[in-house]
Specification:
About 30% of the residues lie in helices and about 15% in strands. The protein has helices at about 25, 70-85, 105-110, 130-140, 160-165, 180-200, 215-220, 230-240, 260-280; strands at about 60-65, 90-95, 115-120, 145, 170-175, 210-215, 245-250.
């Protein structure tokens, strides 16, 4: 079966540790290819999750998407299966970043199957930072999880990321076996090395969108500035957030097209890098002490 059709509720695994059972048979909530709300909760060894649709979510999965009509449906279905396995009230927010293909139509069709799915749309393509910023504004969960819409991030890694938040504020995934062409892998390693040198940090893979963090740290991030999504760890660290990293799976793109080139991303990132470094040098932590009037 293709990666685009996998469901993380499957039992079989391949050599990389990713789940491999065919999507339509592995998850009882997707019997026959549609979201089956009558599936017994015991089929997934968890309490009946249906009432969670009417409770305030504790987890918000945020997915920026631009021209991903060919793969967005399978990605959202995978995410939904993972969230049902966690048995917590949750929501999936996909932000369409001004797509010119059928991404929004595919998402609207999915809402009949997946009640947790919410769709936001930006009127024009504004970039991943703006798309995530829009999601931060409307998401209701106490924990945010971000991942790409192209199917290369594995939703099965979400539980491990969330578990790390017991002792940190932000958990970043880093791709141990990247399934990209060699030029992208080399470009990413070079970019991470330069970024860590300038910002004096040790983040292994700042380009990996797969992250989990407490919502309170995200609401004040300056996501209206294009490109700053690549510096979420640095911006949170300035505010005092505790940061952890864990290895995550990475999968080859099976549909759609990549939205950037090494040169295009490098050209933008260099300016952003110096801007964030300037913010670091000018940042001050404000911790006022209230002085009580003595009678």
């Amino acid at each position: 079966a293709s990666i685009a059709s996998m469901c993380p509720r499957g039992e079989s695994k391949d050599g990389s540790g990713s789940t491999c059972a065919p999507f339509r048979t592995a998850c009882p909530h997707h019997a026959g290819g549609r979201w089956n709300r009558s599936a017994p909760a015991s089929a997934m060894n968890m309490p009946d999750a249906r009432p969670s649709e009417f409770r305030r979510p504790t987890l918000s999965v945020l997915v920026p998407a631009f021209n991903e009509a060919d793969c967005i449906a399978s990605v959202v279905r995978e995410i939904a299966c993972v969230l049902h396995g966690l048995a917590q009230p949750s929501e999936i927010i996909v932000v369409d970043d001004g797509s010119t293909d059928d991404t929004v139509l595919r998402l609207q069709a999915l809402q009949a199957e997946i009640a947790e799915l919410k769709i936001l749309r930006l009127p024009r393509n504004s970039g991943q930072s703006a798309a995530l910023g829009a999601a931060f504004q409307v998401a209701q969960g106490g924990i945010f999880i971000t991942l790409d819409a192209d199917g290369q991030n594995d939703p099965a890694d979400v539980p491990a990321l969330v578990a790390q938040l017991d002792h940190c504020d932000l958990c970043c995934g880093y791709r141990t076996r990247r399934q990209d062409i060699w030029s992208k892998r080399i470009g990413s390693r070079l970019a991470n090395a330069i970024r860590n040198l300038v910002l004096r940090e040790k983040i292994r893979d700042t380009g990996c969108t797969l992250k989990a963090f407490r919502a309170g740290w995200a609401r004040t991030l300056p996501m209206q500035f294009r490109g700053l999504h690549r510096f979420i760890p640095a911006l949170m660290a300035m505010a005092g957030a505790r940061i952890a990293e864990i290895p995550v799976h990475h999968r080859p793109r099976t549909a759609g097209e990549s939205k950037y080139t090494n040169w295009g991303r490098l050209r933008e990132t260099l300016w952003d890098l110096w801007a964030v470094r300037w913010m670091q040098t000018r940042h001050r932590t404000i911790q006022p002490e209230l002085i009580q009037w003595k009678h």
